[in-house]
Write a structure and sequence with these properties.
The chain is 30% helix and 25% strand. By secondary structure, the chain is an alpha+beta fold.
Length: 259
Amino acid sequence: MEILAVNLGSTSVKCQAYLLPEEKEFLSREYQINRMTHVITFGTEKISFDPHESPYQKVFEHLRHAIGEHPWKAIVHRFVHGGVDPVNPTRITHEFIQSVQKWKAVLPLHVPFNIEGYEMCQKIFPEVPQYAAFDNGCYNHFDPHVYEYAIPADYREKYLVRQYGYHGLSHEYAVNCVSEQSGIPLSKFRAVVCHLGGGSSMSAYANGRFVDTTMGLTALTGLPMTTRCGTIDSALVFHLLRNSTMTVDEIETVLYKQS
């Protein structure tokens, strides 16, 4: 069976097609998106898109034109957030998209791109079933003392506040690979796993499951990253609101994109 795996972000779309169960890769493409100049780069090729047009639609149109008749039987998307009890993989349906909408409040810079990417893929490849693989899917077995923040319980429930963790697909892949290569079964495997890139995080794995991770409610916490501040004193936000002229949105931009 042939499947297409899509890793979609605000500035890039990475696509790889695999033949299963052999896990043989037979297609790999990466598109870079510049939303300021409205240009998509693929190798030496430049693809323009209208400011009011989805760049993802252009990407998938280009992909379909390049390969002609698509051979895959399913498309799998990396979804950043799958809620409190995500199951990998999950078939994407209209009801699924409706349920994911609420997680925009937690990850406003990530979830909308996931939804838009699915919608554009559905538009270009309407006959192909699509699935989601969640980045927090391996973190749903944390103990309560790990995932619960020390705030009033009704706030946790009303505002979806808890530790979710992200980069889980990367962390889980690393654990599985090292376990297989070392001969240590997952039930006895213990490790600290590092995902280091534009966004960075660390996770702890012990006795068959992940037991902690550095990212929390959002992808901002934990390690300092390329443009994100990582874990800081939360009162810093109140300090800036009281003593500067910055708005909440401006402070968010500083912490996510200018740190």
